[in-house]
């Protein structure tokens, strides 16, 4: 009996880990990092949650102690793992390294020139640590493929276990928090679990997508839900564009379209006869809090625009230098948008340059992945693009203390590995497409 692909690929993941893949420096770092950050939220009490929601406690009060374990474990794991690919990372990403060096020099210079803020020295230290972590992420992707796969698998399993444990222990409440885990954070963790699994198996598995989307739905994280759908549809469109536009597929699509146009009106007429559609619509709007005026400050599009006005009102104050790296942490501004934070932190010139480089990197990876049919490259490009979409409404961009932001950095650092040139046969080029099963097949150890 032949098992479904979803089952076989996940069994292969577990088999590879059981055969020794679990002893993986980066993978252990990911597992400790995720578990340490999620644990305080999972074990939180109802009294602590009320204090957190009322403002007596802050997110920093709840999770700051766990970062003492999480961040060093992550950096140490990546540092040990970097021995596999440090030279290759430097050789293959030399232009990127030069950009980081020049850009970081300008950032430090701007911070010194504009050192009127009390935390400017701490901001420089945080920026240096973050850049160091990003360089380790560049090294991560140059390690042997099987080691990379095992590390991604451990990160995914740690996230999946943490999300499931939080839901089982704390449950989903009307106020959307899962224990002491902020609803938007919980949804971002689910989004990260989806992208880790997708990058690992080089395709977007619908069962994993459905489970992660359901987790985001349960906490009513609308922006993350839009990002997940965009990620999934982008994968379907780019990975299967040839079959979608083939002649046979066009004929099939026309037939399906005709059947759909006939079936849809019939279903719309028949549904009210068997289901209470009004109640169903009310449940959806209640779950997503579409019309909830008490959902919270800065919630939804109208709430976000109130905070975005801070950016436009103060644009003349930081046109060249900005407020410094992660300036929102120090209460220097309250703009609730990761995209606008590029400009708030680094100024219009340097912030705009960084945003252009990141967006361009995402577009390039999508283009290159489609061109050579390398799905891991395509998926990492889609992660960057959809994360930028989410960052319009979420504030975290570069923060190794936040799971969603760190794994965005990890995908941003992805560099396609050097592979064999396309073979020539009868004056035509053939490209090698990777499947999920091939991606999980152990490769011989060449070290």
From TrEMBL:
<feature type="transmembrane region" description="Helical">
    <location>
        <begin position="124"/>
        <end position="141"/>
    </location>
</feature>
<feature type="transmembrane region" description="Helical">
    <location>
        <begin position="398"/>
        <end position="415"/>
    </location>
</feature>
<feature type="transmembrane region" description="Helical">
    <location>
        <begin position="62"/>
        <end position="82"/>
    </location>
</feature>
<keyword id="KW-1133">Transmembrane helix</keyword>
<feature type="transmembrane region" description="Helical">
    <location>
        <begin position="21"/>
        <end position="42"/>
    </location>
</feature>
<feature type="transmembrane region" description="Helical">
    <location>
        <begin position="375"/>
        <end position="392"/>
    </location>
</feature>
<keyword id="KW-0812">Transmembrane</keyword>
<feature type="transmembrane region" description="Helical">
    <location>
        <begin position="346"/>
        <end position="368"/>
    </location>
</feature>
<feature type="transmembrane region" description="Helical">
    <location>
        <begin position="94"/>
        <end position="112"/>
    </location>
</feature>
<feature type="transmembrane region" description="Helical">
    <location>
        <begin position="256"/>
        <end position="275"/>
    </location>
</feature>
<feature type="transmembrane region" description="Helical">
    <location>
        <begin position="153"/>
        <end position="173"/>
    </location>
</feature>
<protein>
    <recommendedName>
        <fullName>O-Antigen ligase</fullName>
    </recommendedName>
</protein>
<feature type="transmembrane region" description="Helical">
    <location>
        <begin position="208"/>
        <end position="235"/>
    </location>
</feature>
<keyword id="KW-0472">Membrane</keyword>
